[in-house]
Specification:
With about 190 residues, the chain is mainly beta. It has one helix and 16 strands. The strands form five sheets. It has a four-stranded antiparallel β-sheet with strand order 6-8-12-10, with no helix packed on it. Strands 11-9-15-16 form a four-stranded antiparallel β-sheet, with no helix packed on it. Strands 1-4-5 form a three-stranded antiparallel β-sheet, with no helix packed on it.
């Protein structure tokens, strides 16, 4: 069989251990993977073209899935309370992982952007999504000596505020499944 003419539909990938010409009664292996470009079910064909035997096709099926990461914002009257973290204290935030459909996968979670003296912990840092939304706790702790003159630290979309009362920074919570990464800024405004 002439295996030099193998075609695969978009959204799928293949590798194989086959020579260009496969002798009668010989075998080789194909490894197939789905590379979804949209959410939902889709199918495609793996096509072998051989001059002697003609065209042979194998139907492939897959389901594309995705997930989102969001932060639950406090009500307007409570925003200042959670936005400002006094020196020596901590603030807690809720981040939600929301899979599309019956998506099941292991998710790695992390937090970045914390300045010196600020600890950001995602609890837990590894979770298994099983098709339903999942809430994750994020705790931001500010060391007592992390802020000059005991100033509070504020979560904002700014590198440094000009206020003498608070120093601003931006934290990002990131969720990763394989090659897919989603993130959300951890701030109240």
């Amino acid at each position: 069989m002439d295996l030099g003419k193998v075609q695969i539909a978009p959204g799928f990938a293949q590798t194989n251990s086959c020579p260009a010409l496969l002798a009668p009664q010989a075998s080789c292996k194909f490894w197939l993977s789905a590379k979804p470009d949209h959410i939902g079910r889709y199918n495609g064909l793996l096509t072998f073209t051989d001059f002697a035997a003609g065209t042979r096709q194998l139907v492939l099926y897959a389901t594309g899935s995705d997930f989102q990461v969001s932060i639950t914002r406090p009500s307007r009257s409570q925003r200042n309370a959670t936005d400002l973290i006094p020196s020596g204290q901590s603030g807690a935030y809720k981040v939600t992982l929301d899979p599309s459909g019956l998506f099941a996968a292991t998710v790695l979670l992390g937090c970045s952007g914390a300045p010196a003296g600020v600890n950001c912990q995602v609890q837990p840092s590894i979770v298994n999504l099983n098709g339903a939304p999942m809430d994750i706790n994020v705790v931001v702790a500010v060391a007592a000596d992390a802020s000059p003159r005991g100033r509070a630290l504020r979560l904002r979309k700014a590198a440094l505020s000009k206020s003498t009362q608070s120093k601003s920074f931006n934290l990002k919570v990131t969720a990763t499944i394989g090659d897919a990464t989603r993130s959300v800024d951890l701030r109240s405004r």
